[in-house]
Each structure stands twice: as C-alpha cells, then as structure tokens.
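Issue: copy button drops trailing tokens. Both records pasted manually instead:
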Amino acid sequence: MPLKKLSDVGEITVTEKAIEEIAGHVATHCYGVVGMCVKSKAEVLKRVFGSDSLRKGIKVVCRDNTVSIEIHIKVTYGVNIKVLAENVKQDITYAVEKMTGAKIKDVTVCVDDIVVNK
C-alpha cells in the first residue's frame, strides 16, 4: 500500500517501489557495502531475465503512514558488521524520512554475504 498525503491542492502518493529505490541507493553508497542480495526466488528469475536494479533485496511495507524496511546486503570482508549495519539503518531512516515525510517504524539489515577482495 503506497504512502498518501493530502494537501490543499491534491494528493501525493509515494509507492513502495520508490522507497525501495531510495533505500537501495543509500545502502550501496555506505562504506563497506558491496551490493545487494536477492531476497526471493522470484528475484533470481528477474536477474536472469535482465531486471537488475537497486530494489533487489529490499522489501518495503507501508501501513498507516509508517514504513518498515528489510534490506539484504553483501559486505566487504574485514568491516565491523555491527557498526556497518547501524550506519545503513541510520542512513536509510534519515533519507526516507527526509524525502517522503513518512515515519520509519523499523529498518532490518540482513548481511547475507561477505565478499573477500583479492
């Protein structure tokens, strides 16, 4: 269900896909995040057939003007995972609240893979 805000001149709607794009962009720009991980078999099929975007590995649920986000990431070997996850949570919360005006209920960061750079 998208976020909806009423104003004097009309209605503003922000879709869950738009919030997924924001979260994906923010997460991939955090130090130590290598990329996103797929969260379902359906996403694996999308990647096979060429639909690769920042939204993969992100699930957004909007209810009562609050947003819950679950994000699956790959991180660089050697980074402090706890600190990295907290930074990702804070950055996503700040960006989504600032850009959409919605209240963030929670952000769940799942580290699904660690990439070793040679």
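Record 2 (pasted manually too):
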Amino acid sequence: MFLLLHREEGQGLAEYALIISIIAVLAILGLMFISGNLQTLLSTIGKKI
C-alpha cells in the first residue's frame, strides 16, 4: 500500500512545467524591458537624423 501512495512519476512533469512557466514569465518581463529601451533608442536616433 505504501508503494501505491508514494508514486513520483507525475512529480517530474510538474517540476518541468513549473520551470518552463518561470522561464516564460522571465522572458516576457525581459522583452518588456528591452522593448522600452529599444523604442527610446530608435526615437533618439530618428530625432537626430
């Protein structure tokens, strides 16, 4: 009975899903930060031209 309650097969999948979701959130935040800086940079270059 202990072996039936102590299965860890689904645990690996849940850990991978958690890691992927954290990476996705960090990627979105990084893109939001870079897009703001990139827009400012392109505006500055456009004004100087």
